[in-house]
Amino acid sequence: MTGEPRDRRSGETMSEIIVQFGNELESDAVWTWQLVSSGRQGFGVKGDALADFMRRCIKELLSRGALPVYGGGGTPYHWIVQRQYGTRPEEILDNVMAEWLADGAQHDDPGELWFALPERAWTPPE
Questions:
Q1: Rounded CA gap, 33 and 80, in Å?
Q2: Residue 115: helix, strand or coil by DSSP?
Q3: C-alpha 75: how far from chain center
Q4: Is residue 8 a part of any domain in this protein?
Q5: Strand partners, 67
Q6: Which of 34, 99, 28, 14 is nearest to 66 (CA)?
Q7: What's the total number of domains in the chain?
Q8: Does 6 map to a domain?
Q9: pLDDT tens, N- to C-terminus, the chain (126 residues)
């Protein structure tokens, strides 16, 4: 038996849920709102524990090759890669977390940032 937190609804461990977010990338982008909501509602975490959960989730998504994207509404593209977060996974992770924490990490909806696989997104030229 693991001492790891379990989701209040499904009973799955935090690690299992984090892997599932990574698995979603094969069919769709993952919205940062999903991560925050899962941490708060599913596991009842807040503060540093929520930040750690977010960091673990984003790290998993990046390890699968995902990039930060915004929806391409009003353009011919469904997703648009957001280069301002950096190019290396560690850099992207640090910058996304810094932005979310600077905003106070108070909202279940931290904005329109999603993560998608590069083949599902348009990368603007440098």
A1: 18
A2: strand
A3: 23
A4: no
A5: 116
A6: 28
A7: 1
A8: no
A9: 568 999 999 999 999 999 999 999 999 999 998 999 999 999 999 999 999 999 999 999 999 999 999 999 888 999 999 999 999 999 999 999 999 898 776 655 556 899 999 999 999 998
Eight-class DSSP state of 12: -
The vertex-79 CA angle with 91 and 54, nearest 5°, equals 40
pLDDT at 107: 56
Residue 92 and residue 84: Cα distance in Å, rounded? Answer: 9
In terms of DSSP H, where are the helices of the chain?
14-24, 32-37, 43, 47-63, 89-102
CA distances from 17 to 5, 23, 43 (A): 11, 10, 10
Domain range for 42 is: 14-118
Whether residue 1 is contained in a domain is answered as no
Ordered strands of the 114-116 beta sheet: 30-31, 114-116, 67-71, 79-81
Q: Is 70 left (phi over 0), alpha (psi -120 to 50) or beta?
A: beta
The residue with tokens 């693991």 is 2
Residue 52, in any domain of the structure: yes
| Residue for token pair 């790290």 | 59
